[in-house]
Amino acid sequence: MVNPFVPESDVAQGSDRISEEPPTNGHRAAWRRFLASLSQGPLESRPGAVRSAWRPLLVRQAVAELWLGERRLSRTVLGEGRYRIGRDPACELPLEAESLSRVHAILEKPRPDERDFALEDFNSANGLFHRDRRIRAIRLRHGDQVQLGSPLKGAAPRLRYLHPRSPLEQAVHLLGLASLLGSGLLVGGLLLVSSVGGGSRIRLISGPVKIVSASGQQIDAREGSATALPSLQAYPLHLRQALMASEEARFGWNSGVDLFGTLRSALLGSGGGSGLTQQVARIYYPEVGIDYSLSRKLRELWVALQLEVGYSKNQILKMYLDRAHLGLGTDGFEQASRLYFRTSASDLDVGQAAFLVGLLPSPNGYSPCNAKDPTAGRERRDLVLKLMHEQGYLGDQPLIDAQRRPLNIDPSACRDSSFSSYPFFSDYVLGELEGTRFALNLSEKTSGGNYHVVSTIDPKLQQLAQQQLQRFLEGPAARVGLTQGALISLNFRSGEILAYVGGGDYSRSSFDRVQAMRQPGSTFKLFPYLAALEAGASPDQPVSCAPLAYVAGCRQGGGSITMASGFADSENVVALRLAEKAGLKEVVRKARQLGISTPLDADFNTMLGGRETLLYEMARAYAVVANGGRSVPMHGVTRIYDLGICRSIYSLPSCPDRGVTTPIGEQPRQLLRGEDAAVMDDLLARVVRSGTGQAAAVVADARGKTGTTDRGVDVLFIGYSPTLEILTAIWMGNDDNRPAEAASGALAAELWGRYMAAVGAGLGRS
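^ thats the sequence. predicted structure below, dont judge the formating
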């Protein structure tokens, strides 16, 4: 690389004063030459002339100047290399000064495709200072000056960075300013048209869906679900003043579009420039986008205007306070206040309020949890306090007191999130909300969502289910080659889902195996036996053990076996003979009657559990037996609050009736004869006492049925405890259908026993 360093002796006389010739005349000449090349000269030579005249329009040059006081020491035209600044003569920008280290700083582009250079301190003794503040590094812009050493230690050299726009960039910049000015005039006209022509079309504010347990514990998978206070007045006045001082002092009287801020950002090239209403437009309407394109700006302006017409200033301000992004997974000042200070936003003092407002431009960057700059949070707080003081919101002594006060942040805020969610169940609830029962629009992109949903989940049972399943998958299941599992528990009287685990680790796979199509194996035999009981069969009647079609006879050999023993030992041939007696179509009808919706054929394969079903539908069918033959309305939602009407989770008790939906319960129906359900209950108890489900006998009154498909691809146990009034269905297997020859339904029964025994102990009924 050719070093373009120019020593002081080569600097022209009179150039030691800070000066820079305006490039306007050169730009105009370049544009005149380009326009002339388009129309002058022979036609065949014009392409070459245009290319030749186009190149000067792209020319721009980065220059680094070193100054001491009012004297320029050197001027360097920067190429693409890396420049060291220091006292060492080997530096590309050497400079003899006592305040400099041998290598004081590095000047280079962060990436080759970057326009401007960055300056970074090279662990120097006296550091770098920009605008009287010590910095570690800075992305330079045209006209920036950085002090090489502390300004408090006498005269120190400084670096001046020059990189003016090329003629083309200058033209684009001016065009942008003209566009903004034109859009300002357009905005005024649009606001007038919107006001006169019917007002805002925005009538619904979208938002997240917040799912909680009956106790109010948030359990949805989205950590950043917003939490809002019920009214603007619930937020302290000094918080609102801090927001006004920092974000937009003109909010109270502008049109919703901060033209002054937008123009200022364009002139200074600093980005931003959006007023509070424009920020609300981005937060509540994701379709506005977050890119820096002109089209995004126009979408943002239009939505902001609609908000200004349709909502009062106070409403817009509250919308911002409710949902502004404040880092670490928090949305809204209430949620951020509880994270950082373990208190409601309504109880924030002025320093705490200023701290949260100070996070807004870069929530994670300014967070005190940012190890790269742990003082950023305090500095941002003090800046907001200073702005409040300048604008008359804060007196002299309150300013000093607030700046001296420790932040006192909750230490747990900076740790890995302790937020716990039940994502498989949350996904199920969202499906229930969007399904045929409620048919809700939950998409925030189409003004949907913004609901507070009270679910049926029991956090204690859910935690037990997650822990027991995970431990079992890592232990006994892993030893026989099983890697996945699913579990669902419900109250078989009310149908409330109490625990729901769709797999071992949601972060690795969000696929819900409770609703996956898997073969039920022998758990499907419930339906042939129920159909046989309905047709007049009795538990003690003998059934032939002779082979039937392709199905082998009983494991004990020829002869016969009672219906009850055949069920306890899960003899396939017995189930087939009972199905034939009742009629294969009647068995399918019985399965449909108890809620099985998946495709079923009236053949032997279906009777033996060879057709895929859903675990949660099988659980519901078994729950009918547990409930004495009566229908069980399985569900995960008990109440829905529309936060567009209720406004806040803190005002739910006083929410108008039109904002509250209590689901209509299923009409109770007797699906099985009471006597048939009682016989089936006894048959299921025998499975645990003396049959294939003995591993579940750790629960004293356990009933259930094992299921094992060919080569152990699927293993299941579905059972219940009349005392606990809880039914639990468990499936284990591999997502890729890999066989596990040593696995059987007895393994699922063992997990069922462990989990249900823990549930009983937790409920005090063991």
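Residues 1-21, 252-256, 261-272 have pLDDT under 50 and may be disordered.
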